[in-house]
Amino acid sequence: MNATTIVAGEEISGTWFRGWGPWFAAVVAVAFSGIAIALGYSGQLNLLDAREGLAVVVRMSIGVGALLVVLSMADSISGMRDRSTLEPLLLTPITGRSLLGGKLLAAGSGWVVVFLISLPYLYVIGDGLGTIALAVGLSVVLGALLATTFGAGAAVLSIRSRTNLQTLGVGLLGLALLAIPLLLPASVLRNPIGELLVRADPMSAAQHLIGALIVDEATLASEVSWFLSPVLAALITSWLLWKSARFIELEPGI
Amino acid sequence: MQEGRPAIVCTSISKNYEGHAALADVSFTAYAGHVTGLLGPNGAGKTTLIRILTTILQPSAGTFQVAGFEPDQANEIKSLIGVMPESAGYPKRTRAIDLLTYHGRLYGAGREEATFNAVEMLAAVGLSDRRADRIGTFSRGMRQRLGLARALMNNPRIVFLDEPTLGLDPAGQHSILELIDELAGSRDVAVLLSSHLLAEIQGICDRAVILDHGRVVFDAEPTQGLSEIFHKVTT
Ligand SMILES: Nc1ncnc2c1ncn2[C@@H]1O[C@H](COP(=O)(O)OP(=O)(O)OP(=O)(O)O)[C@@H](O)[C@H]1O
Ligand SMILES: [Mg+2]
């Protein structure tokens, strides 16, 4: 077994057997059930139709999955600095790249679990719509891209921060900034700068894709250019992580 | 005392922190089969020197050899050394045996071999009966012993111990020092032991280096005037 899988195995058992993993999975399942029940008792109370319900589940699975990965990766190095557990690990012959690769794999297991929990809900809510395969496909592709982007980004911050508080502070600020385009009204797309903004932000690009493909039934061919920023962001953050992980300092910037 | 193979050769190492020198032109040699004491008051530079020699901190100037390897061969060095850092933390929910097994596997041991070594090391530091307990339930002294066991998991040729007896009761101190003595004597390991306690160094070391404000002010056998210089430095 190589070092990356050894680290991943240790981290996964830390999260799922000794840590908060099972509790988190239970909370996510309850949240999905709440949505499914709300959609099931349609009548006048429910404003969402089934397609929108499906889009909500996909967005939730991607968003919650990415958030899990972000939280794990933000803790990866600066959390160990805070708990003084980094030094013993740096003293072993394992490379920084194997260490972070293993941690990223383990963090990815959080996203995978959220995705698996979302599957039965996708099937129940999307029953008869003929878009279930599309919803599953989008969950996998966009989920993996966003989890990679935000996980690797958080890890880079974690490597360079002196404390975990610093990582979380800078990281949350970054997430808040990226969330702003999500809040813009749809009319913003009619102006070229507005459209560029929504396209450039991988979060809002993903949100647009889900709405266009699942709710508005646009064709994949007409929307494929919206995948550009999620793909580029995943590549760039992974490359940054690859570079940053080469030498992990006990205390950065000293 | 006859000198064995050089295990650590430290040549003119300096380390500056924002203009302030933590180490200035430090040179000394430590030998296989010897316990070399690194003595000095708080802030003398002991921890900084150990971190540089164990390749996790870059010196500002100077060079060194550990087990014959240069600073840029960090992975070769790391696989041959065992280190007990000054203030290591432990994952509270992990069992002692699992921590050591994981650590052993990071050096390339298979799961079974690493588990076997972990059991053996826990016995060597007197923690056999607590091996399946979570580390969060350990007392400070027990964590200290666990740290020593971890430092020995890869069967190192050179061992760096940064104030290993800190916080131990006299019996605990005695048993750790005995273990260190045995490592050097019968396993031909080089031990670099840092301490700010003169008696500890006098009792166990073949050679002692005193650091004061980042400079070497003594480098000889402890019988050759160690206590005079140490008292001068600490008063
Ligand atoms: N990260 C750091 N940033 C700035 N200065 C530092 C840093 N680490 C150590 N120093 C300084 O370097 C000097 C040597 O510190 P070091 O920790 O090596 O001493 P020490 O001999 O191990 O002391 P102690 O007996 O208290 O453990 C001190 O003056 C300390 O203030
Ligand atoms: Mg120290």
Concise overview:
Chain A is mostly helical. Chain A has helices at 3-16, 21-40, 50-76, 78-82, 86-90, 96-125, 132-160, 164-183, 192-200, 202-215, 220-223, 228-244.
Radius of gyration of chain B: 17 Å
- Computed over alpha carbons, the radius of gyration of chain A is 19 Å
- DSSP strand tally of chain A: 0
Contiguous uncertain segments of 5+ residues of chain B: none
How many DSSP helices of chain A?
12
Strand content of chain A: under 5%
- Overall mean confidence score, pLDDT of chain A: 91
Order of helices and strands of chain A: HHHHHHHHHHHH
Outline type of chain B = globular
Multimeric state: heterodimer
Largest interface, with Cβ-Cβ < 8 Å? A-B, 22 and 26 residues
Low-pLDDT regions of chain A: 43-47
CATH topology of the largest domain in chain B: Rossmann fold
Major β-sheet of chain B, in short? 6 strands, mixed
- By DSSP (H or I, 4+ residues per run), the number of helices of chain B equals 8
Q: Residue share in helices of chain B? A: 25-40%
Your description of this structure?
The complex is a heterodimer of chains A (254) and B (235). Chain A has 254 residues and is mainly alpha-helical. Chain A has helices at 3-16, 21-40, 50-76, 78-82, 86-90, 96-125, 132-160, 164-183, 192-200, 202-215, 220-223, 228-244. The longest helix of chain A has 30 residues, at 96-125. With 235 residues, chain B is an alpha/beta fold. Chain B has 2 domains: 6-90 and 156-234, P-loop containing nucleotide triphosphate hydrolases (Rossmann fold, 3-Layer(aba) Sandwich); 91-137, no CATH class. Chain B is built from 8 helices and 9 strands. In chain B, a hairpin with a 2-residue loop joins strand 1 (6-17) and strand 2 (20-31). The longest helix of chain B is centred in the C-terminal third of the chain and has 18 residues, at 170-187. The radius of gyration of chain B is 17 Å and the shape is globular. Classes of the chains: A mainly alpha (254), B alpha/beta (235). The interface between A and B is medium-sized, with 22 and 26 residues. The structure holds adenosine-5'-triphosphate (ATP) and magnesium ion. Adenosine-5'-triphosphate (ATP) binds next to helix 1 of chain B.
